[in-house]
Amino acid sequence: MPNLLYIHSDQHCPLVTGCYGDRVVETPNLDRLAASGVVMDSAYCPSPICGPSRMSMLTGRHPYQNRSWTNRDILDSQIPSLAHAMGAAGYRPVLAGRMHSIGPDQLRGYSQRLVGDHSPNLPGGGPAPDRGALNGTAGPALVSLQASGAGQSGYEVHDEDVTDAAVAYLSQLGDAEQPFSLTVGLMLPHPPYVARRPDYERYAGNVPPPRNPTFTEESPPEFLRWWRKNGGLDVVSDEAKQRSRIAYWGLVASMDRMIGRILDALEQTGQAEDTLVVYTSDHGDMLGEHGLFWKHTFYEESVRVPLLLSWPGVIPAGKRNANVVSALDVTATILDAVQAPPLPGSPGRSLLPLARGDAGAVDAWEDVAFSEYCSDESGWSPPGGCYQRMIRAGDWKLIYYHDEGLQLFNLREDPGELANRADAPDCRQVRDDLQARLLADWHPEQVIADMAARREQNAILAAWAENTQPANQHLWDLQSKMFYLEDPQQGRAGPTTGS
């Protein structure tokens, strides 16, 4: 059985990576990983928001199957995870860093956590993270863009600790006979959009503006209009937007250097030739495209994720694959590779035939992926909530906004997603077929009812945690002094939000 090194970042738009075509950002380590295996060009996250996406990748199930749609929802611990299945196959899976699990179960099948998360285990289970001078900048708010530039994010400090722990773990493996399973959870390049001075200066003046910066008022549903206004994106200055982009490029470069240290440590173990290395992220970032920032949308910059697979002797080096795949397929792929039992109820499919280049694999693969974003939380959705789902099938992407309408794009003809063809007469059949498929197993009225029940449950759990203050486990010591902006006049921080 092979070893597994699974590296999972947070909010990394694949288009800001050298191997995905960015000529400005320096990502030599991700690029060398890509060169040693296969680059998946059309991988999609289960949900363009942290918690639900990560829980789906753990269980191999869609958010609606997990009944986990928001960052406050607690995944049922009876649902087996990737780590449980690997443990059943004889591995002792270890996690270093980010998991973003809400609830008392902070292992989710992992046998050991080397570095934890930075926020309380339960809503109401302790004070929200204090990001000091950068309070409010981790979430979707105007201050996130205003208070951007050169400085330091505590998330970068967190990832340095995670990297040290991962390197130390790999370094002590020696000639261990049992294969290892190490998952590395990084926070970068998640906002705050603040990078250390050398990285910020490296990209200042070099990062181009967005390719499609204009918000089209005529086409988007009301949700996108609300999202833009609620986040202050209709009033933020171009200078603040560009500072945020520059810092993001710097954060990606910093993350890449950490990944390089981990890959070097793997090489030094002497076990790299028998190790499946997987790199991906939970979702992307709009970065000013379509006049939007952060995540929460189904445009490519937000819903697509990087996906690199390397396994010497099994996956040919230097390959690219254009098939449409889901992050749920990543979970199935790992379990297939390590000969672990498949996860019950998971629609994930193993990517190994595609990655290996098996005869007929491309033609046999169905190019389809789903993603959903449902929220009833203030600041993350309009009053009354939002209930949305996307299907990518072949060249087409359909986005369903419950009680609001549709967006339909042909990504081959319109890669910038500038022409909504949902009402085009010549696209009616495609639209209807995709909508029928999207709604075949996903029922918005049931989702609304389930989320209302969740709200009632969560209210009691939050009140209980607030009153009893249960001990937090696997909590990394995030400190307010880790966050600072070298020019604090660029923006004033507001209330703490976000991840």
If you had to describe this structure to a student in words, what would you say it looks like?
The protein has 499 residues and is α/β, with parallel strands linked by helices. The chain is 32% helix and 16% strand. The chain has helices spanning 28-35, 50-59, 63-66, 82-88, 142-146, 154-171, 197-203, 222-230, 238-269, 300-303, 327-337, 352-356, 361-364, 428-440, 444-468, and strands at 3-9, 38-44, 94-97, 112-113, 149-152, 181-185, 194-195, 275-281, 304-305, 307-310, 319-326, 368-375, 386-393, 396-401, 405-410, 484-485. Strands 1, 2, 3, 4, 6, 8, 9, 10 and 11 form a nine-stranded mixed beta sheet that branches. A four-stranded antiparallel beta sheet has the order 12-13-14-15, covered by helices on one side. It has a three-stranded mixed beta sheet with strand order 7-5-16. The radius of gyration is 21 Å and the shape is globular. Residues 492-497 have low confidence and may be disordered.
Show unreliable segments.
Answer: 492-497
User: Could you give the count of β-strands?
Assistant: 16
Give the proportion of residues in helices.
25-40%
CATH homologous superfamily placement:
Alkaline Phosphatase, subunit A
Please state the average pLDDT score. Answer: 95
The CA-CA distance between the termini, in Å, is 36 Å
The secondary-structure class comes to alpha/beta
Coarse shape: globular
Which CATH architecture is right?
Answer: 3-Layer(aba) Sandwich
Helical stretch tally: 15
- Tell me the major beta sheet: 9 strands, mixed
Query: What is the alpha-carbon Rg in Å?
Result: 21 Å
CATH class: Alpha Beta
In percent, how much strand structure appears in the residues?
15-25%
CATH overall fold name = Alkaline Phosphatase, subunit A
